[in-house]
Amino acid sequence: GLPPRVTIYEVGPRDGLQNESAVVPVEVKAEFIDRLADAGLTTLEATSFVHPKWVPQLADAADLLDRLDRRAGVDYPVLVPNERGLDRALQSGVEHVAIFASATETFAGKNLNRTLDEQFAMFEPVVTRALAEGLRVRGYVSMAFGDPWEGPVDPEQVAGVGRRLVEMGCWQLSLGDTIGTGTAGHVDAVVDACVAGGVPVAALAVHFHDTYGQALANTLAALRRGVTTVDASAGGLGGCPYAESATGNLATEDLVWMLDGLGVEHGADLHKLVDTSVWMAAQLGRPSPSRVVRALAG
Ligand code: HMG
Ligand code: MG
């Protein structure tokens, strides 16, 4: 069966914009986020408090959060890799942060400048302090399916990294197919390994990149396994600057089209999303890669 309702965890402002070569003005980012809230999305990953030299596109994180008209009932999580990031996020008054672990040794080095084990030492004080401050902490596992340097990733390895994040205190675990190579059977295997490893399915989210056109099929597989939180990016923006072959995330509009067809509730207004993505594409100077945006925008 399928869940009656899914939570869309929108990552466009963060995962989408972190990979744009164009510098997007902070007021455009703020308007993007406002429009996504107007379209009914209630979880909007706003930005990252990472090192500004590592991701210059999001160097305006504090300014952006100052400008946001943060609404009751809307959650604005931000990425933080370390205590310095947490300090900055706390100064901006955030209520929800996300740490991002790698399932592989190579990507831990490329994305975090740490070994696989060192990344946990970096995250541990972040989670402890964030929880003490009353924040919620999401944990990502990147390269949860394939890694451009190491190839396919063992589901047991992913489950092990995920379990450590949950034991640390993450309330939710997002399984990231950073480079989009995963397929539906692989999704079953990774979800099953996590659940067998002690992570409840209710704590799982899925985060697919559509590089190989598998994101919707993979999402359906995850829904059939009982996953009820799906990460998506308006207009299919996105990628990861430290994983060469990563392209856009699953487009929120493509997800909504599928959920509507399946009769699964989500709370978003498809036409407002499409209008927003068409507007954002004009800001970026290139068309949205989302099939649904292209179909509906005519
Ligand atoms: P490092 O160079 O090892 O940092 O980078 P460090 O701890 O050695 O510190 C060096 C200097 O940087 C220090 O300054 C720190 O204060 C400063 P100094 O004392 O020399 O003057 N610094 C900071 N400044 C501002 N904000 C900070 C910060 N941290 C240190 N947060 C670090 C380590 C983790 C910081 C770096 O590797 C980094 O920022 N990485 C982030 C990379 C990133 O954002 N990648 C994209 C997100 S992950 C993703 O997209 C995947 C995902 O979507 C899921 C999926 O698709 O699978 C989530
Ligand atoms: Mg991503």
UniProtKB/TrEMBL annotation:
MF (Gene Ontology): hydroxymethylglutaryl-CoA lyase activity; metal ion binding
Domain Pyruvate carboxyltransferase as annotated: residue spans: 6-274
Domain of life: Bacteria
Swiss-Prot/TrEMBL keywords: Lyase, Metal-binding
Keyword flag Metal-binding: yes
Keyword Chaperone appears in the UniProt entry: no
One Pfam short name: HMGL-like
GO term, biological process aspect, one: ketone body biosynthetic process
EC number of the protein: 4.1.3.4
Annotated PROSITE patterns: PYR_CT (PS50991)
Family per record: Belongs to the HMG-CoA lyase family.
NCBIfam families in UniProt: PRK05692.1 (NF004283)
Protein name: Hydroxymethylglutaryl-CoA lyase
Source species: Pseudonocardia dioxanivorans (strain ATCC 55486 / DSM 44775 / JCM 13855 / CB1190)
Lineage of source species: Bacteria, Bacillati, Actinomycetota, Actinomycetes, Pseudonocardiales
